[in-house]
Write a structure and sequence with these properties.
This protein is of the alpha+beta class. 16% of the residues lie in helices and 39% in strands.
């Protein structure tokens, strides 16, 4: 995904306010062997890009004054109540150095899982993303969580995820729960409800 930016010489709160009034967002590129660069980006283009999942979890092609760099979105600040991006941070990436990134989880096949199909249960998504470590070229846009075999009373953990080659999950304590299946209180499984409705002989 390509991002176009321009170098920024203006510094300070007043300068940033003038930039925003002109429809631009101040930012910075840091990391690697080069010095940090202050940049400015078109606000509307950035605002819409931030709505896309891929913008948050992919290596971006950043073009600054005709020079291209590979970067990751690391942070951004939004206005408390206005649809306004106040500042954005990007980090340079080295093709030969592993990166640590949060990758979104995509949950699939819930409707055919035993928990939902047979027991009328509900599946709770405990996590929406997972921390991974990998080389930039191996970074996945998302990781799929297959719920097709999940039954009531069971859970899917990070160790159960099918991670792409070269990608490892960054552990934070024990084997974290990704999703769980349960039956709502007072809810009867379809088979039990059907049996209860049968007339007694």
């Amino acid at each position: 995904m390509k991002v176009v930016a321009f170098t920024r010489t203006e510094q300070g709160t007043g300068a940033s306010r003038r930039l925003r009034n002109a429809g631009q967002t101040p930012g910075i590129i840091y990391g690697g062997d080069a010095a940090p660069i202050s940049i400015k980006l078109d606000h509307n283009a950035l605002f819409h890009a931030l709505k896309k999942e891929v913008f948050h979890s992919s290596i971006l092609d950043m073009e600054v004054e005709g020079k291209a760099e590979k970067v990751l979105l690391r942070d951004f600040q939004m206005h408390a109540y206005k649809p306004l991006v106040l500042h954005v941070d990007f980090q340079r990436v080295d093709a030969n150095q592993k990166i640590h990134v949060k990758v979104p989880l995509h949950f699939v096949n819930a409707e055919v899982s035993p928990a939902v199909k047979l027991a009328g249960g509900i599946i709770s998504h405990v996590m929406t993303d997972v921390d991974v470590s990998c080389l930039p070229a191996q970074l996945p846009e998302f990781i799929t969580v297959d719920l097709s075999k999940l039954d009531v009373g069971h859970s899917i953990h990070i160790s159960d995820l099918a991670l792409p080659e070269g990608v490892t999950a960054v552990a934070h304590g024990d084997d974290q729960t990704v999703a769980t299946a349960s039956v709502p209180a007072g809810h009867q499984a379809p088979t039990d409800a059907a049996a209860a409705e049968e007339p007694k002989k």
